[in-house]
Amino acid sequence: MQNFRAIVLLFLVLTSGQALAALGKEDAARMQAFLNKPTATVLTLGNNRINLEKAKKLAAALNVTTTLASLTLSINGIGAKGATVLAEALKENRSLTAVDIFENKIGDAGTSALAEALKGNTSITKLYLRVNEIGDEGASALAEALRARPSLTTLDLSWEQIIVLAHTPGVKPSLNILDLAWNEIGDVGATVLAEALKANRTLATLDLCHNQIGDAGAIALAKALEGNRTITTLSLNGNQIGDAGATALAEALEGNRTIITLNLRDNQVEFARARELAAINSRLNILP
To answer: Which residues partner with 234 through β-bridges?
Structure first.
């Protein structure tokens, strides 16, 4: 549509706590002017069928806004081309701190474009990319971007297609929340991540649930936890960890007082052993 109606649907949440309803027939120029108002800080455009043409108009608006801090574009099907267009705008934008592109089929190509934009962007601290068909290539591109410009504190890459973490983003000094749930990193990925955790001094929350991690990966993570003093929450539920891996993690907890919760539910630990470990350490969430 030429009048840009789909782009301005839903609402803008203002700093005053008010919500502005759908703007109807406002054109792209009007949208840009509106986003420049000092009260326009949060824009939510979830499930609005934003195609490539509308993504271009949104990108144009992002190029001029100086107040918008949060942008949500979940479930729009913008694809790799739409993500690439938005990435170009993010290279110039200096107001956004949080971007949510949940379930948009951006793939590795779109993720790589966003990663390139992050290298020159120091304002974005939270990036949510879950359910976007991202694989190892996209994850590696993000890791490279974080090395060049470590401004992110929260990164959500859950429900993707990541198998091997050749370069883990967890090593960066700024990241404090990393969500890699529902991927396929397995023991190899867990071991790579464990090496990064030995040097990391900021990561507080790590979600690795449902990642096909077995005893070898769990033991590697346990060794990393022995010297880590920043992680407070580690989720390993829904993996393939058995008695040996669970025991190693439980023993690591004995020397690590920083971790508040270690979730090992729905693994392959024998029930009797799970009860023993749970009785030893109340911070271990292991019983069904």
So the answer is: 206, 262
d(CA 60, CA 214): 47
CA angle 280-286-288, nearest 5°? 130
Task: Round to whole Å and give the CA distance between 248 and 252.
Answer: 6
What is the rounded CA–CA span in Å between residue 82 and residue 76? 10
Highest mean pLDDT, choosing among 23-32, 140-149, 234-243:
234-243
pLDDT tens readout for residues 7-19: 222 223 222 223 3
The domains of the chain, with CATH numbers, are 1-162 (3.80.10.10), 167-288 (3.80.10.10)
pTM of the model: 0.84
Phi, psi of 9 (to 5 degrees): -70, 175
Contact present, 218 and 262 (Cβ < 8 Å): no
Maximum Cα–Cα distance across the chain: 66
Length of the chain: 288
Summarize pLDDT for 71-91 with one digit per residue, the tens.
999 999 999 999 999 999 999
d(CA 20, CA 235): 38
Strand-strand pairing, 98-100 and 70-72: parallel
Closest Cα partner for 261 from 243, 277, 282?
A: 282
228 near 256, Cβ under 8 Å? Answer: yes
Q: At what angle do helices 243-255 and 215-227 cross, to 10 degrees?
A: 0
